[in-house]
Specification:
The chain is α+β, with helices and mostly antiparallel strands and about 170 residues long. It is about 35% helix and about 35% strand. The protein contains four helices and seven strands. The chain has helices at about 20-35, 40-55, 100-115, 130-140; strands at about 10-15, 65-70, 70-80, 85-95, 120-125, 145-150, 155-165. Strands 1-2-3-4-5-7-6 form a seven-stranded mixed beta sheet, with helices on both faces. The radius of gyration is 15 Å and the shape is globular.
Length: about 170
Amino acid sequence: MAKKLSLDDIITRTEFREGDIECITSMHATLYKKEYDYGLQFELYVAAGLHEFAKQYEAKNNSIWVCEHNGNIIGSLLLVNRGDAAQLRYFILLPEYRNIGLGKKLMDLFIAYLHQCNYKSCYLWTTNEQEAAAHLYKKYGFELTEEKPSTAFGKPLIEQRYDLKI
């Protein structure tokens, strides 16, 4: 009988390392193509955002949480400094690591860091197709504040902005 996966099996690190941009971009491109049929435009969007994060990264007001299991990256979450606000970006977990409490753990770490850095607000962009993610964001107090039609990821969808007042 195989051992059931638990949070204790997963390492969460906050160091930004070589290869993270490539791996997190690839995870997004592969998973979102499979689950939502997002195209090349989405992969380019993720790569550009991660490149921007890397260029302006300072640990005092940005953070990255990278989840690893058996030496492989299996998830991530970023907090990006936007002046008085923080932006939540690139929250992803491979399907086999969902529903074990890892998403909640990452959100708890994110919210604690948000308070530690004294941000006044936080926001994120997602799509109407990310229903499970939106449910989690709402549990943490994020509210839907804007919707706009988009074809930016290679197909028609609704982009959604969620805001959190702190």
